[in-house]
Design a protein that fits this description.
Elements lengths: L1 E5 L3 H14 L3 E6 L2 H10 L4 E4 L8 H7 L6 E6 L5 H6 L4 E4 L4 H19 L11 H7 L2 E6 L2 E6 L3 E6 L4 E5 L5 E3 L3 H5 L7 E5 L2 E4 L3 E4 L3 E4 L2 E4 L5 H7 L3
Parallel strand pairs: 1-2, 1-3, 3-4, 4-5
Antiparallel strand pairs: 6-7, 8-9, 8-12, 9-10, 11-12, 13-14, 14-15
């Protein structure tokens, strides 16, 4: 698997490069101390995976990823700032590693990329075509969510709300322990019927059927107060005619 590393700290590049070399399956084609040079490189080269810092001069890792419109490689964010995690996953980052990065955590992230590459490389005849959203919303009463090493069946009616954490989504359930899954919001929203599940905050999706009441800036579900984000207020209030 070919990869590049982008970080404005040479020591951070050395650490990630040493991890890549230790795994053996990663070929570090090039390293960069700024994202602009990396953009020029990617315009002429096809790379499988990008390790990118976020806080960098000239252009941030977030803006760097947004600038790649075609043939986007898999990418893993490596940063000392965990507050960027949700935005990173909104861009479909495969993973988000917070410095200092433990080697076992690095291995887990790379293995996830390998799994996705294998899935994408399978012949189309062996892949089940995705159901249209409307059909799914009409007929499905459950979804399967990958958690750790198994795919869990979750009844949609059992979901209270979903909360974004640093590396995971936490699915809060009726009369059951919460389920943690390494997904981003776009991925899980594609599985959920949009007539029932609504994103009300950058960190929350709620099940509208479970709402007890709506206050000025909060939604009450199961005696818990879930914030309504400023950028989501108009959509939420419009949805419920408030």
């Amino acid at each position: 698997m070919t990869c590049i590393i982008i970080d404005d700290e040479p020591l951070a590049i050395e650490v990630i490069e040493s991890y890549c070399n230790a795994m053996g399956s990663l070929n570090v084609v090039s390293t960069f101390t700024n994202a602009i040079e990396a953009i020029e490189f990617l315009n002429g080269e096809k790379i499988d995976l990008v390790f990118s810092d976020i806080e960098m001069p000239q252009i941030s890792g977030i803006d760097f990823i947004k600038s790649i419109e075609h043939n986007r490689p898999f990418f893993i964010f490596t940063t000392a700032y965990p507050e960027y995690a949700l935005e990173g996953f909104d861009l479909n980052a495969t993973d988000y590693l917070v410095k200092p990065i433990p080697f076992p955590r690095f291995i887990k992230a790379v293995n996830r990329v390998k799994e996705l590459m294998l899935l994408n490389s399978r012949p189309k005849s062996f892949q089940h075509p995705p159901e249209p959203k409307e059909s799914q919303a009409t007929h499905d009463e459950y979804i399967f969510i990958k958690s750790e090493y198994e795919n869990l069946k979750i009844n949609l009616s059992d979901i209270y709300y979903i909360k974004g954490l640093k590396d995971y989504l936490k699915i809060n359930l009726v009369d059951a322990k919460p389920v943690l899954t390494l997904m981003n919001f776009n991925q899980i929203l594609s599985k959920l019927p949009d007539h029932t599940f609504i994103r009300v905050h950058r960190s929350y999706i709620i099940n509208a059927d479970k709402i007890t009441s709506i206050q000025k800036n909060k939604i009450i579900i199961n005696n818990e107060r879930i914030p309504i984000g400023e950028s989501y207020k108009a959509q939420v209030y419009g949805r419920f005619g408030i």
